[in-house]
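Appendix B: a complete holo record

For completeness, this appendix reproduces one full record from the ligand-bound portion of the collection. The bound molecule is 6-O-phosphono-beta-D-fructofuranose. The inputs are the chain sequence and the ligand SMILES; the output is the full three-dimensional arrangement of the complex, encoded as structure tokens. No fields have been trimmed.
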Amino acid sequence: MKTIEHIAIFTSGGDSPGMNAALYGIVKKAEQSGIRLSGIRKGYEGLIDGDLVPLDAHKLQKMVHRGGTLLKTARSKRFLTLEGRQRALENLQKNEVDALIAIGGDGTFKGLLAFSEICDLPFLGIPGTIDNDLAGTDFTLGFDSAVNTAIENIDKIRDTAEAHNRIFLIEVMGRDCGYIAIHSGLGTGADAILIPESAHDFIQLLEKAGSYDREEAFIVIVSEGDELGAEVAAKKIKEINPDVDLRITKLGHVQRGGNASAFDRMLGIRLGAAAVEALLRGRKNVMAGILNNELSLTPFDRVVKEHQVNDELQGLLKIFGN
Ligand SMILES: Nc1ncnc2c1ncn2[C@@H]1O[C@H](COP(=O)(O)OP(=O)(O)OP(=O)(O)O)[C@@H](O)[C@H]1O
Ligand SMILES: O=P(O)(O)OC[C@H]1O[C@](O)(CO)[C@@H](O)[C@@H]1O
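The structure of the chain with 6-O-phosphono-beta-D-fructofuranose bound, as generated:
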């Protein structure tokens, strides 16, 4: 095994609060171990363009709380091509990089799996996405912050909904995963929660909406990946209860911004330090995560395959959400 002297890091896919904390964890651990670090700007785009920059530990210390990512991020069409990945490899060789740390979501790790077919450097992953849609960790970086942002905004919408006796359908992010919807819906006492993982939730919503008496607020949280979606759900509610006053609000990218929660700051620092440590111990092609509050390393191929809302949460949804 080649000694690791130089590690390059990038953030990729959707940004998430806690990515800067993870960069801080990486920088401090590498400093302690005498490792040289480079940041790659704009995810796989920067890897293809050879956009490597030094990482400033002091600057990161001052922005450990901040959302977004100091290194910027991107969704890269070019990295989907073999030609793009070959250019990325040439840049790593030219800059004498010994190992790579990627902070991103399932797409990012699929990218690393494809890259590992032509590049045998050790890769280490850190789960950075608000969606919480990865196996190998109980929580991804940014999920807790995004849920807190969603909850804060749903609470506000409830005030105006109560004042007007309105039905509100509030769409939250999560791509094809219902975690943000479940956590923000249960945490705000929503009347119904629609998630991609459940087919029964809509039937239950219609039963409730049909008997809604228009004397209070009625809050429905709709995960953006739900098979029906907010517009169709709203149309169906109007069909069975035509006189209701109904509005749709899409929370959108506000959920990705803002300071990281205390939980995400600590998660980022722990996973950042753990990623460097794992590389120095010779681990490769695994994602660092936290399972039952213990650090854990899971191979990329497992991480991208499994991401189900677990049975316990599905059970809670039946009791509270619908
Ligand atoms: N099969 C693949 N082969 C090569 N590269 C890939 C593959 N899948 C994804 N990538 C690369 O990984 C990048 C990041 O993936 P994606 O845009 O899906 O975000 P993500 O990592 O899933 O994060 P988020 O969950 O926040 O959206 C893609 O833009 C693409 O460049
Ligand atoms: O910022 P973009 O590219 O529009 O992506 C939005 C998507 O990214 C996420 O915020 C993170 O994966 C999803 O919840 C959402 O579907």
